[in-house]
Please model this.
Amino acid sequence: MTVRLLKKARCIDLVDALSDDYEIVAPVRKKDDTLFEPLSGGAEMDLDYLNSPVAPREFLLPQDETVFEYSDPENGTTLQPKIKDRCRIILGIRSCDLNGILLLDSVFSKDIPDLYYLNRREKTVFIAMACNQPGNSCFCSSLKTGPSASEGYDLLLTDLGDEYLVEVGSSRGEEIVKIGRGLFGEAGEPEIKRKADLLAIALESFVLRVDFQRVTELMKGLFADGMWEDIAERCLRCGGCSFVCPTCHCFNLFDRQLSETSGKRTRGWDSCLFSGFTRMAGGINPRGSKVERIRQRFFCKLVYYVEKYGAYGCVGCGRCTDTCPGYIDIAQVVTSVSLRSKGYEVDVGAKPER
Ligand code: SF4
Ligand code: SF4
Model:
């Protein structure tokens, strides 16, 4: 493994050096929140952020995008796929979100490859950031998706105080170091040891630890359990949990007419919590009730993802808990599954104490 040091004060010089070849997306402070956005117009990075309220997956799967435009149907319809994106660096992405993207890679490359996602993925470089201090809703350590990334990054930064330890994870990472030559210093065993110590402290400081052992198997035995009705009572069907999640990926397609002879097909994020999500022509809806939809969300994350892709569809970022107006908490659900399967009564309607 190649390691380097980068002074925090030189980060902006690295961004400048890379800006000719890449669009740089980074966390930027916006009033009370930090959001990922392209660095332009003097926007300042906030690499000390705890967690962004929305995962940066939108840079690989935009909330709304044109899939193709069509025109001239009388003379033979022409379809123009809209696949064009410039090379992009996502700087400061946390380990949980990077693991979310590794899951999306499976979703969008297996069965039917999604050229739009895969094209963006190919052009995206990840400069990830290890967490020295987890948030109150974070439970990535329970899923081994954090607090430091072990795969998927091109460069991985760890905050050592005035400087970052930089671990190079790929040939593209080597290329970045080459472009920024002169900005990086040498690192060795003392800095690697310092990172290991910080990581140990971070692992100790998680307030939320969730036991996922056997949850997939236990969930299957609780498909008809009354706990889903209790949870559903709190769901307002806002879709917020899906939209902030780094692993949710469902979308809907829309055809829009632009003129008498032209139009475009777009796609936009959808949520399995919306009542129309599975509604079909003729009004048939296989998941017509709120209970069926909320159960689907948790079965998707904890059962179906595992069966199809070999990993939970949750990376422990805690965003769905933070955003849910009904205080529905995936960590509480996992714990309740374990207790219910042992026959205990559980109060899944209680607001989590954090
Ligand atoms: S955020 Fe909460 S209330 Fe909104 S759809 Fe998700 S579970 Fe339901
Ligand atoms: S299900 Fe919730 S905690 Fe898990 S990855 Fe999605 S938003 Fe994060």
